[in-house]
Amino acid sequence: MVNDKRKVVLVGTGMVGMSYAYALLNQNACDELVLIDLNKKRAEGEAMDLNHGLAFSGANMKISSGEYADCKDADIVAICAGVAQRPGETRLALLKRNAKVFSSIVDPVTASGFDGIFLVATNPVDIMTRITYMLSGFNPRKVLGTGTALDTARLRYLLGEYLRVDPRNVHAYVMGEHGDSEFVPWSQAQVATKSILELCAENPEIDQEHLAGIERDVQEAAYKIIEAKNATYYGIGMAMARITRAILGDENSVLTVSAMLRGEYGQTDVFAGVPCIINKSGVQRVLKLSLPQEESDRFGESCRVLRECYEELAGSGQDGC
Ligand code: NAD
Predict the structure, then answer these.
(1) 92 CB contacts (<8 Å, ≥6 apart)?
(2) Residue 103 — φ and ψ, nearest 5°?
(3) 85, 119, 145 — which closes off a domain?
(4) pTM of the model
(5) Confidence of residue 318 (pLDDT cuts 50, 70, 90)
(6) Which member of 52, 171, 178, 210 is catalytic?
């Protein structure tokens, strides 16, 4: 830890950022929280609003709006800032604009002397995390994205409902891109220590088709929520709070974050969602699961999609890529 204050600076006080901040407050997950946004007035208002909840919370947090200089002694800088897609705008054009936004954030954060951990939530999160790594020049273990942490939580919830087991006793991951090419390595999915594929083989009432449907539901969850209420934010805010607690508490917890691969799963030059041990150093290490060939191929395909997306951006002459 940079200091013993458990200090988090949040950049981007929109729906995702403030859901994260609200979760931090309710879980008493840090001692100091600084809010930064391009819209300074909004950040000030959000800090006031949160402070007015302090009397009803068990937390004794110091909450304020601030400046990039406040990052100097922070343990975590969480980035939820971004611009939304304009009508008719291509994915690449949006990505270029968000890369510019990140340049305007990461440069002053590093200039402050910040030496903590970057936690990125802005989409496309695997690409934005790689951009943060490139712009900051940090050790890649200190730059992580939310990756498939939320997708994994959605999977565990849906499996828990189907199998009628507490999701906390369901051990299964979503891996790869936080997006269309993500997948579930079913060979690794377990209830307690019992393989879900074995459960399936032994119990006719557990249908493998239904499991495939759950995987699709996880992939499509964000689209459905956005169709219903324009954006998703509570789940990701909770996922970010969980990752934050793992870092600040030096927990060595396993979470599926977007981490740089350096040979794990045969992949390099890519940030993708993989189970990682998370502690005060960030990604302490990537867990290498023993994936059968078919699942290893699906992971490789997801990494290919991510690599191509990043290279398309870099090829377009975007600084920092
Ligand atoms: P939002 O529009 O509500 O908030 C974005 C905030 O960023 C705004 O307050 C805006 O003022 C600020 N901002 C823009 N440019 C900035 C800059 N240069 N410096 C500082 N602040 C700046 O959006 P949201 O709903 O909160 O979503 C934020 C991001 O999170 C989006 O990219 C969204 O796709 C992503 N998201 C990720 C996940 C995930 O699983 N990783 C889930 C949901 C949403």
Answers:
(1) 312, 313, 316
(2) -65, -40
(3) 145
(4) 0.96
(5) low
(6) 178
